[in-house]
Amino acid sequence: MTTAPNTAVPASVGSSFPDSTGRPDRVRRLSGASEFNEVLRNGRRLRRGGVTVVAHRRHGGLPRIGLVAGRRVGGAVVRNRARRRLRAALREVTLAEATDYVVIATPVVATAPFEELCGWVRDAISSTLPRASAR
RNA sequence: CGAGUCCGCCAGACGGCCGCGGUUGCCCAAGGCAAUCGAGGAAAGUCCGGACUCCACAGGACAGGGAGCUGGGUAACGCCCAGGCGGGGCGACCCGACGGAAAGUGCCACAGAGAUCAGACCGCCGAUGGCCCUCUCGGGGGCACAGGCAAGGGUGAAACGGUGGUGUAAGAGACCACCAGCAUCCCGGGAAACCGGGGUGGCUGGUAAACCCCUCCCGGAGCAAGGUCAAGCAGAGGCGUCGGUGGUCCGCCGGUCAAGCUUCGGGUGGACCGCACCGAGGUCUGGCGGCAACGCAGACCCCAGAUGGAUGGCCGUCGCCCGUCAUAGGCGGGUACAGAAUCCGGCUUACCGGCGGGCUCGCCGC
Prior knowledge:
Blueprint: H1 3-16, E1 28-29, H2 33-42, E2 44-48, E3 51-57, E4 64-68, H3 76-90, E5 99-105, H4 114-134
Helix pairs in contact: 3-4
The chain binds one RNA strand through residues 2, 5-6, 9-10, 13, 17, 29-36, 66-69, 75-77, 79-81, 83-85, 87-89, 91, 102, 114.
């Protein structure tokens, strides 16, 4: 658990972060029930490991994310932790422009090794990319 | 040293990389940069008490709810402190819904004869009355039918106060002495609860987290309170002595053809203020007053403010605890409970562990 990420994490950060697309990857937050419902109703839903990603393409603008950690994830402390780890993991991946994402947590998100969590998020996000762009 | 008890405190530390929210300043703006601040002792449960907001409010009666030894503290409390009383502990100390049972009503399982104007199973007596025997005609003896008694036995958590005497046929607070309890009066101490002492009196079960009585307190709803702006829609029916006085009634007030209430239907469900606060504010001063809770004075400080919800993610080193190999040390695992949402004061509950101090008991040494 401690030895493997030592080499893997910095590599993934360095490769995907500053210059994979050349633009500063800024992200907005989703806000309000209407925006969330829009994504959840019309978006493409993918589950990888302990996370579910719902992606929905918009007309333009920066990517937006919304995090969901429901009551079944745990108490307030565990839900906060799950949300923060998801936010940290999302910074490790490239998000498509003009797309809204809702990421839904399960209980394992709070306890799973961080590298594994990053893997789930990366797989799920990249799987949405061709569909979202093909639409 | 061991065991215990009370009080207070902490809630791993440091570093690296990458981030988030608020505020202030700067840049012409989108946005960016800099500085600065950014979870808890319980932020929790939402159980009490307030602040604040809106609605209501002449007054009275009755409901209803809450509190309940005394005094103090406090904005207030069901909280805190001190004291009293009762109970527990060798002790430090701990625990207590702790007003009234002599205002009334009710209840007291099982057992038991009887469980509150009590009762008589075994028992005791049988003076008096009755019956029988005897007779020296005064009486004497017997039976246990009437009747009397509640001492002893037995039942029970509890049996009409306890012990000893007098008394009597046998007995009983019937009477006496002492004692326990209660009521009442007086004296002394205390601010009071209460404590100590004395007199008098009647003659005494428990239960009020049973009804109840007494004293005191309580208008309702809550920040989704409440307000501003924006956007948007479609009205129709009912009540007409109706509405308000937010439990009810009396009474009062308002409206009386236009408003109000209400039912169904339609629209919106966004932004901002409230709301991040100069406050029942925090820290310090071995300050002053007080046994203490706390109050007062002075100095300094401004100390989270999100809204699908910031306060973090990952890594390293060192602590601490456990297991293991066991020589410094190595390896593996663990490092609680838990996350602000209008804000305060409490209570309760959860919690790996650690630190400091006071006191008590036991053992040992000087």
